[in-house]
Each structure stands twice: as structure tokens, then as C-alpha cells.
Design goal:
By secondary structure, the protein is an alpha/beta fold. The protein has nine helices and eleven strands. The protein folds into two domains: about 5-185, Molybdenum Cofactor Biosythetic Enzyme, Chain A, CATH 3.40.980; about 190-275, no CATH class.
Length: about 300
């Protein structure tokens, strides 16, 4: 078992006031702090103790973040649009550089005060689920943040939505995982690309399913099809014994990963990621080392 990997997080919550009430309370959305703590606990457990996130600062701001084109919602205006479920501003993208400046994120990463930032806000805040900055930043479910090299090292900014649940937070983290491990294995072809082997599922590799990806369980027939009862042959259990992969297979269906529950599937998926000491073909056997610290990914 690998040693825990500690990551220091700046949590930034955008919770604007509308008519004297915070947005999460006004619309009966989830408590941002409870969501974050639930996600931290899940990641610690499903990573076999590798992922140890610590909130070193919590910043709650009573405002809407500015969009990349300079637009900023006004409280009553946003509330009216949400009630109508229409009329949201386009383009939706937030101004990441404005956020980085406002909260001094580059300086905090460079000084070692934090390793990454978690943004928590409302629907249509304009966040990517994850995005990477710093020197040598690469695609992390979003284009790399240019002009952030003064951080001195790579860092990730997660984007979460307190209208949704912990399962959706794990999904956002799952796309970060997919991006980073694809980069780790980018120069590995054929059998040496163990990441491509890990994510095989029945739809793309009939008769060769392994664990699947964050959207497709081994037997899924479409995106988010985590409740499919169709039995398929999978080598998912083989990954519990990594790096010794025997090729052993058995029939599985959604009973293995929660019968359609998003949080249960994602927890099951993370449990299969390699997490032990040593190396295989020049890659650490603890894939969490890369997921948690993208600075470890070869440039």
C-alpha cells in the first residue's frame, strides 16, 4: 500500500445573497461544506487512503463571479432566470484569470500554501469541472490555463455545483483522473498502455471489458448507463491485484456498482485504480500519485 498523499486546498464558495437569503438556502440546494466534506471522505476511502485533502482556507464570497466577457449576474436577475430555467448568459465561461487574481492563487501555489483550489457555486457559474494551470499545464477536461506559469508548478482548479451531490463531484474528479492518466500513458502503445486497457468496456471492446471509464461501466450501452442489468464478461477484479494481471474474468452487471447510483458507481470505479508501490514500464504503480499531483507527470 502506498503512503498517503496530502494536498492542501483553497475552498472558494460563491454564495450570493438574493433578497436577504443566500442562494443555496433560497433554492433549497445542498450545503456546500457538507458536500465538500463528503467528497473528501469518499476520495480518502476509495483511494485506499492515498487521497488526503486538507482545507487550509475557506473563502465564502457574497457575489457572482465575472464571466470571461465581463458579464456579471445581478442577484434578482439570476434568481428570475433560474425560476424560468431559461435566459442564462452566453457565453457561460467564467473569467479564470480574474478569479486567480482576486484570490491570489498563483502566489499561494508558488509559496506552498495550497496545492489546488476548489470552486463551489451555483448552476451556470461557468466553471469547468477541472482545469490545470502552471508551467507545462496540459488538458485536464479543459484547455490549459495560459499565463499562469508564475505558480512555479502545475495545479488544478476543480469546479463544483452545490445544486448537485457528492456523486457529481466524484464525476468531475473522474474526468480529471481520465485526463491526467491519458497524459501519463500518452507515449505508451499497445499492451504497455495499461490505462487504455483499464477503461475498456463492452461497447468499445466486445468480450474484453475491464473496469470502464467514469461514464461507462463495463456493460453500459450509453453515457451514464450505470443501472444496466445486462451481464457481460469483465476482468475488473483483476485490477485489485495490480501489477499482477492474470486475465481472469467473470460475469458482472450493475449489482456490482450500486444499481444505477452515480456515487456508488464512481466509488466502485475509483477502488480499482492501481495504488501500490513500485513501477511498471516506467510508470508508478500508484496512479493516485499522478491524479493528486500533476507535477509528477513527465513533461
Amino acid at each position: 500500500m502506498s503512503s498517503p498523499i496530502h494536498r492542501r486546498v483553497s475552498l472558494i464558495i460563491h454564495a450570493p445573497t438574493v433578497g436577504g437569503r443566500k442562494l443555496p438556502q433560497l433554492f433549497h440546494w445542498n450545503d456546500p461544506d457538507r458536500l465538500v466534506q463528503g467528497c473528501i471522505r469518499d476520495l480518502a476511502e476509495c483511494s485506499h487512503g492515498a487521497a488526503r485533502f486538507e482545507l487550509v482556507e475557506r473563502l465564502e464570497v457574497d457575489e457572482f463571479p465575472v464571466k470571461a466577457d465581463g458579464f456579471r449576474y445581478q442577484p434578482e436577475d439570476f434568481a428570475a432566470r433560474w425560476r424560468q430555467r431559461s435566459g442564462f448568459h452566453q457565453p457561460d465561461a467564467v473569467d479564470y484569470h480574474a478569479l486567480i487574481r482576486q484570490f491570489g492563487l498563483l502566489e499561494k501555489v508558488r509559496s506552498g500554501q495550497i496545492d489546488e483550489a476548489w470552486l463551489m457555486a451555483f448552476p451556470y457559474a461557468g466553471y469547468y469541472e477541472s482545469i490545470m494551470g502552471g508551467p507545462g499545464a496540459f488538458w485536464c477536461n479543459a484547455p490549459p490555463l495560459q499565463g499562469t506559469e508564475s505558480s512555479g508548478r502545475r495545479f488544478v482548479i476543480m469546479g463544483f455545483n452545490y445544486e448537485r451531490g457528492v456523486g457529481e463531484m466524484l464525476e468531475s474528479f473522474g474526468h480529471r483522473t481520465e485526463s491526467i492518466l491519458a497524459q501519463v500513458y500518452r507515449d505508451h502503445g499497445g499492451p504497455s498502455n495499461l490505462w487504455e486497457r483499464f477503461i475498456r468496456h463492452e461497447r468499445t471492446h466486445p468480450g474484453q471489458a475491464q473496469v470502464g471509464n467514469i461514464h461507462f461501466a463495463p456493460n453500459s450501452e450509453r453515457d451514464y448507463d450505470w443501472g444496466n442489468r445486462r451481464p457481460v464478461s469483465s476482468a475488473c477484479d483483476d485490477w485489485y491485484g495490480f501489477p499482477r494481471l492474470t486475465g481472469a474474468r467473470r460475469m458482472v452487471n450493475c449489482d456490482e456498482w450500486g444499481g444505477g447510483d452515480i456515487r456508488a458507481h464512481h466509488f466502485w470505479w475509483y477502488r480499482h485504480l492501481p495504488h501500490v508501490e513500485g513501477e511498471t514500464a516506467g510508470v508508478l504503480n500508484n496512479w493516485w500519485a499522478y491524479i493528486l499531483d500533476p507535477e509528477r507527470v513527465r513533461r
